[in-house]
Amino acid sequence: MAVCIVYHSETGNTRAVAERLAAVVGGDLVEVKDLAHYSKVGMYLKGSPRAMRGERAAIEPAAIDVSGYDTVVVGTPVWARSPTPAVNAAIEALTGIEGKAAVVFCTSGGVPGKTLERISEMLAGQGADLRGAVAFTARDAKSGEGIDVLVDLVRRSQKAAAV
């Protein structure tokens, strides 16, 4: 069954998890770029307040068609205990998500806050069928620890979609 992994990464942690997942379950990677091109300081000074407010960024790609996939995975870094503005925009940019199995993950330096819940609510609002969520620390993202939990969620979603 086809998997699409949509993610935003600024420091590489979320990208590492997405790439590890793709290496195990296959599928296509769609990296969402925030056109604001934040510096490391800008992520915290400008990006974090925007994340807390639930704002959406101008992104590339501007539209993400997932109609050809059975399972959609969305990954985000945590900024101010929230999903990034780029991921907020990416979820809004999804087309063909209705009725698709969805799994979410986040990477954070510490506490993920309500990040997973917010992404889950946004995807449910788009008509996705949420199958689970996993939070990774930056250390987990670098070491690969915990990836088996995410892989299991995706594989179970694929099996359910095949039935």
Automatic annotation (TrEMBL):
Domain Flavodoxin-like, residue spans: 3-158
Taxonomy, superkingdom: Archaea
Coiled-coil residues: none
InterPro entries recorded: Flavodoxin/NO_synth, Flavodoxin_CS, Flavoprotein-like_sf
SUPFAM superfamilies found in the cross-reference section: Flavoproteins (SSF52218)
Protein name in UniProt: ArsR family transcriptional regulator
Organism: Methanoculleus caldifontis
